[in-house]
Amino acid sequence: MLTTPHRMALGDPERRGWVPFSIDGHGPRWAVRLLLGVWLSLILVARQGNAAAEGVPRELYQKAFSEGSVRVIAQLRVHTTAEGHLEGAQAVRSQRNDIASVRSTVLAELGGSSHRKIREFETIPFVALEVGLDALSKLEESMNVVALEEDRLESLLLSQSVPLIGADQAWTDGFDGTGMVVAILDSGVDKTLAFLSGKVVEEACFSANGSCPNGLSSQTGSGAGVPCTYAPNGCRHGTFVAGIAAGAGSSFSGVARGARLIVVQVFSRFIGGNCTGEGEDPCAKSFVSDQIAGLERVFALRAQYAIAAVNMSIGSGRFTSPCDSTQAASKAVIDNLRSVGIATIVASGNDGFPDGIDAPACISTAISVGSSTKADTVSSFSNSASFLSLLAPGESIISFVPGGGLAIGSGTSFGAPHVTGAWAILKQRNPSATVGEVLAALTSTGLPITDPKNGITKPRIRVNLALHTSSPLAAQAFVTRLYEQVLNREPDSDGLQGFIDQIAEFGSVVPTVLAFFQSQEFLGRNTSNAQFLTILYHTFLDRDPDPSGFNAFLADLQSGLRTRDNLLDIFLDSHEFASLASFLPPQDPVTAFVTTLYVRILGRGPDQAGLQGSVTQLEQTRTVLPTVNCFLASQEFLDRHATNTEFVTLLYRVFLNRVPDAAGLTGFVATLNQEAVTRAQLASQFAAAPEFQAIQHQLFP
């Protein structure tokens, strides 16, 4: 089968639902701390070299010791599937019951230890807790807990841009987001503004410090999403963002001026050290667990509203590769939303990193957005990485703030809602479009802009062009042909969408094509050479074979002059297929080259961590041979037991991006057979060839 940052003040523990620390019920707290310090040392020493301890980062124990407790999100040992992929309401209920059952067991296991439950999540196998050292140790020992991550604090990422991305042209064509809803997870929105009049359809608040309008940590219903008031700068952020995404005015409007809003306030009031670097004290910051609760609320409203996307102009950290494993709880709820066609659009951060972006933008299934200027350059403050999704205007942006005044702001915070508004417009045109399809449309039609910090090229969105592209439909048609021609069956829905998303992610069809042609399902068909050729024509050229080409290729196969892999490469490289593959999004040259290494040398698509590592190595060394040699020396490649002919063919594909000429192939194979050169020496010869040097110059001009 084909398969596809600091803790809040606790106050009096008994009033907050804590079981207090104690030794024998007597004695000062400092004495307990002293003994706990000895205990912590014993814990850390005893667990050195213990693989099981890898699930609890050492810094969580250190913070629990130094601060008395630490906020964590525990991943429960429950196998789950994104709810949009489950078959029917009974399967959803069953999965949620499993989550609730294991959560109850874990909470019971914590009995007698210092802990406080912060939030339960209904749809994902996680629970947010505040725990002391004893409870932290119990969580680590529990067979019902897979991993722990810190419940971090994250910060806000503080009328020419709409025409720049073509939104006004989309309005002229009749698409302004009408009928669609976008969710704004932020510091609250002033719905009394004329600019946002009548737009807010739902409100909620999740604030661990009890900063909701009702004074509690949770609130839903009218009035729950009003802007906070304790931080003048931070508390106006959400209104500003909402205006960019969906505001409607007489002189200017937001991107999706016809869309409506779900407002979720996820920030809390902090003072003192937690506000360092925020520019104001008190300040507004947000716990990850509150964000997850907000995302679950949006998910729960999906049947009531046509929700296109969620905007999160929030973030922290520096992640140089996708952070799925360290942000597992956020990824799980983002995946739930994605499974029902709702995108989570996140600002990349404003630190000017050339090689990393904030969380949660670093999650592979989120849509990460950097900032561009109105002159179509990358903003100097915009965080960048090879796995960034899109660019949008984020510099010198005008919008409204609470009370009705206009303000000008710059930041990736304000690039993200441009994408959110664009998403609503595209979903209005095609309500059934998946997240991958909308992303492919925006990526393939975007204006390529290269970041001078790192040479990485990413698309700045052009919604008017994306509105009329056939990219998602063309990608779907191609994957459907792969199923019908290669596997001789109709596609299953999960597989179809998974491969469409893979093409959009890698900007290449090659990993997808290889997955089909190397699958046991295809190999088990035992096709003849004639059948194989016919499949190639129908799959890649979408037509019947012409007799002359078919007969020539068949003769080459029968005589052994060409292999099936050779012919697969020829069809993939053909101009006729290239004209049909216009749905492919642009890809920066270095990332495309590394993808080729994975596909050609290892016979598979890249994993995100490996892809980013190799891209970083190439960008630092600006020469390809060391990276190629790493692939050629890998055990994964050696286990393929490539013949000399296969090895030489591979060098042609990797270094020269073409199939070998007959004379060159014969000559190089002979030198290897005669042991006149080693494979490593031959790879060095290809790297030094003038034909490759010209290609390398295109990678590193």
Question: Biggest β-sheet, characterized?
Answer: 8 strands, mixed
Helix content: 40-55%
Global shape: globular
Can you count the beta strands?
21
Between the first and last Cα atoms, what is the distance in angstroms?
44 Å
Structural class: alpha/beta
Cross-sheet strand order for the largest sheet: 8-7-9-6-12-14-16-17
Compute the gyration radius: what is it?
A: 28 Å
Q: What amount of the residues lies in strands? A: 5-15%
**Contiguous runs where pLDDT drops below 50 for at least 5 residues:** 1-54
In DSSP terms (H or I, runs of 4 or more residues), the helix count works out at 28
Mean pLDDT over the residues: 86
SSE map:
Elements lengths: L28 H18 L11 H10 L2 E7 L12 H21 L5 E6 L5 E6 L1 H9 L3 E6 L2 E4 L4 H4 L2 H6 L8 E6 L13 E7 L11 E3 L16 H10 L13 E6 L2 E3 L12 E5 H13 L6 E6 L1 E6 L8 H12 L3 E5 L9 E3 L7 E6 L17 E4 L3 E4 L5 E4 L2 H18 L5 H11 L1 E4 L6 E4 L2 H6 L2 H16 L6 H14 L3 H8 L2 H4 L5 H13 L5 H13 L4 H10 L1 H6 L8 H14 L5 H14 L3 H8 L2 H4 L5 H13 L5 H12 L5 H10 L1 H10 L2
Parallel strand pairs: 6-9, 6-12, 7-9, 12-14, 14-16, 16-17
Antiparallel strand pairs: 1-3, 1-4, 2-3, 5-11, 5-13, 7-8, 10-11, 13-15, 18-19, 20-21
Helix pairs in contact: 1-2, 7-10, 8-9, 11-13, 11-14, 13-14, 13-15, 13-17, 17-18, 17-19, 21-22, 25-26, 25-27
Question: Could you characterize what this model shows?
Answer:
The chain has 701 residues and is α/β, with parallel strands linked by helices. Helix content is 44%, strand content 15%. It is built from 28 helices and 21 strands. Strands 8-7-9-6-12-14-16-17 form an 8-stranded mixed beta sheet, with helices on both faces. The chain has a 5-stranded antiparallel beta sheet with strand order 10-11-5-13-15. Strand 18 (397-400) and strand 19 (406-409) form a beta hairpin. Helix 13 packs parallel to helix 15. The radius of gyration is 28 Å and the shape is globular. It starts with 28 loop residues before the first helix and ends with a helix.
